[in-house]
Design brief:
Elements lengths: L1 E2 L2 E2 L12 H7 L3 H5 L11 H4 L1 H15 L3 E5 L6 E2 L4 H7 L7 H15 L1 E10 L6 E9 L4 E6 L2 E7 L11 E3 L5 E4 L12 H4 L1 H19 L7 E3 L6 H14 L17 E3 L10 H16 L3 H4 L7 H34 L3 E5 L5 H19 L4 H7 L42 H14 L8 H24 L21 H30 L9 H10 L1 H21 L7 H44 L3
Antiparallel strand pairs: 1-2, 3-4, 3-13, 5-6, 5-10, 7-8, 8-9, 11-12
Helix pairs in contact: 4-6, 4-10, 8-10, 15-19, 16-17, 16-20, 17-19, 17-20, 19-20
């Protein structure tokens, strides 16, 4: 019925018109594009309408949400983990509609979109007279909060979430009733500055380029037509022409229908310019700006042209260390109020060390730390500089070097005035270790000269004679004679006698090299008046007896092992001769080189010590 021109009735309500945001964001048809009408694509939300913004924010949110958030009690480094109780129960489900992943994801999303995050804690009383307990936390849209400032002081927050669908009714909160965190904003003391502001221009550009390309594709790369006539057309003719052009258009992917125009009309079809064709390339620059604003590498957001394995691995490590880790530290600082409300003694922290890429980086730092420790750098210093994560050790403030090194000009401890004593027969490792040090010392051998070759021939002759004595000792006169199994134990071998014979051969060479190196050092310092004391030479020769002992014991042990391995008395003499020849020829040059280097180094050190002593005591 009509009352005063107003229609009143109880009929069904007409359907509501589409919302402006929905109609403008996704409205428009190919016919709108052809008619030259605005399709209605309006930029309203970068997070909803730009793929790069959505992905960059979600990469950060998903990465942080997948890092374990742990709780501990005690000092850092000696803390005790809390694996149960109210803390674990609350963070598993902070809200009936939010799980532990969405809790961290929503916080990151609001920090990136608005630069701030508002959390409203809701407490409940378990029973009358007891303290209240944190029940759940609401994460609300920062756009619905207005800060209230009086006398230059924040006095409250006004929440304007109207409607029955809002998670919380509109009300005013005190500052202590809101858990508020923000990103730094130099232009507004009370509110945060989101990275989305810096990426707004790039997001709008990418949005416009995407819709331009969408229109081109949906219209089969047809950017419209221009009809030119010799005579003006009346409205009826114009409508007929528009109808014919509309009937020609087809959907995307289907060729347009041929059209026939009568009269003198000319249809001109504009072509895409080179600038229009560069929209795809320009979108890459927009993507780079968006990723830079949010601090996310392009290699993580999408597969780029340079996204090789090594490039992506380095980009991911840089992303974790320089973007995710600082963001986790910011969240930890803001989360302490939540953790303390559930357990006053506990702290919460992200376990970044559990990430596989950081574990691999730590292994690489351990390799570098081992190199530094071998150089004598204290362990605690390496632990601090390289951030290894170990606790300080009591001995970690002292530097250590390998036992093969000693200060130049000094005799190693235990070697001064120590006579040559043979090693115990039951301790083979003692002389074997000496032999390893012998070969290690000869790694940097001096260039062989004529004198060295002459000494090597003499040493070979000595070893040949020694082989004969060894075969005679085992009772093997001929190649077919069996070996006497009663003399197989190593204690029966005449090691001491062979040591004396070898020392008598090499000691003159050692003495000559020692004195020559000492005199050369004195001559270089212009101190020919100084002479090498005989006691220094004898002390050096006594210390080199361990090399002779190690050499002979290595030969004896190798021979005995061969005999025992082949059944004692059945081992042929030819095998023993072959093993002896191989060991002698292999070790002879190394042995002689080590002896020569030891004599040259010790002699040079002795000369320097004499010069230093003369400078301290000029008299």
């Amino acid at each position: 019925m009509n009352l005063f021109g107003i229609k009143i009735g109880r009929g069904p309500k007409p359907p509501p018109p589409p919302t402006p945001s929905g109609r403008k964001s996704f409205g428009g048809t190919p016919g709108d594009w052809f008619r030259g009408e605005e399709p209605g694509a309006v930029f309203t939300s970068a997070y909803q309408q730009v793929a790069w913004v959505y992905r960059a924010i979600n990469v950060l949110a998903e990465q942080v949400a997948n890092i374990p958030f742990l709780f501990s009690v005690g000092e850092r480094g000696r803390e005790n983990l809390v694996t149960g109780g109210p803390l674990s129960q609350f963070y598993d489900r902070p809200h009936p509609q939010i799980d532990r992943f969405q809790y961290w994801e929503l916080r990151i999303i609001w920090l990136m979109l608005r630069g701030e995050c508002f959390r409203v804690p809701i407490f409940e009383h378990e029973s009358p007279g007891q303290a209240r307990r944190l029940s759940r936390v609401l994460i609300l849209d920062p756009a619905h909060f207005q800060h209230l400032v009086e006398d230059h002081r924040l006095v409250g927050w006004r929440y304007t979430g109207f409607g029955p669908r809002a998670p919380l009714a509109a009300q005013v909160f005190l500052p202590e009733e809101i858990w508020f965190e923000k990103l730094p904003n130099p232009f507004d003391f009370w509110r945060g500055l989101p990275p989305l502001y810096a990426a707004a221009t790039a997001a709008r550009t990418d949005f416009a380029a995407a819709h331009f390309m969408r229109g081109i594709i949906e219209n089969n790369a047809d950017s419209g037509v221009i009809v030119r006539t010799d005579q003006p057309l009346d409205p009826e003719q114009q409508e007929q022409l528009f109808a014919a052009l509309r009937d020609r258009k087809r959907k995307a992917g289907t060729a347009d229908r041929p059209m026939l125009l009568s009269g003198c009309s000319e249809v001109i079809r504009p072509q895409l310019s080179s600038t229009d064709l560069q929209f795809l390339e320009n979108r890459k620059f927009s993507r780079a700006e968006i990723c830079a604003a949010f601090g996310v590498p392009e290699e993580i957001v999408t597969s780029t042209d340079s996204a090789k394995y090594d490039v992506m691995r380095g980009a991911r490590l840089n992303f974790i260390e320089n973007r995710v880790a600082p963001l986790c530290g910011r969240l930890e600082a803001g989360e302490q109020v939540t953790v303390r409300s559930l357990d006053s003694k506990a702290v919460g922290w992200f376990d970044l060390d559990s990430l596989p890429i950081l574990q691999e980086a730590r292994r690489q730092r351990l390799v570098a730390a081992r190199t530094g420790f071998d150089m004598g750098i204290p362990f605690n210093e390496l632990n601090r500089v390289l951030d290894l994560g170990f606790t300080a050790l009591p001995w970690g403030n002292t530097g250590y070097l390998s036992t093969r090194f000693q200060r130049l000009g000094e005799v190693a401890p235990g070697k001064r005035n120590t006579p040559s004593t043979p090693a115990a027969a039951g301790d083979p490792g003692h002389w074997q270790q000496r032999l390893q040090l012998l070969f290690a010392a000869s790694s940097e051998s001096t260039a062989p000269d004529t004198e060295f070759k002459s000494r090597l021939r003499k040493l070979g002759r000595f070893l040949f004679e020694q082989r004969g004595r060894t075969l005679a000792h085992f009772g093997a006169g001929t190649a077919s004679s069996p070996l006497d199994s009663q003399v197989l134990p190593s204690a029966s071998l005449p090691i001491e006698r062979e040591n004396e014979a070898l020392a008598a051969l090499v000691n003159p060479w050692l003495r000559e090299d020692f004195c020559s190196a000492a005199q050369r050092a004195l001559a270089e310092a212009s101190r020919p008046d100084l002479t090498v004391p005989p006691e220094a030479i004898e002390e050096f020769l006594a210390g080199q007896a361990v090399l002779v002992e190690a050499f002979n014991r290595d030969l004896a042990q190798s021979l005995l092992s061969r005999i025992e391995r082949h059944g004692g008395a059945e081992a042929p003499v030819d095998s023993i001769r072959a093993v002896y020849n191989k060991l002698a020829s292999h070790n002879a040059e190394k042995f002689l080189t080590a002896c020569r280097r030891a004599a040259l180094l010790a002699g040079h050190a002795t000369g320097l010590a004499l010069i230093a002593g003369a400078e301290r005591n000029p008299s």
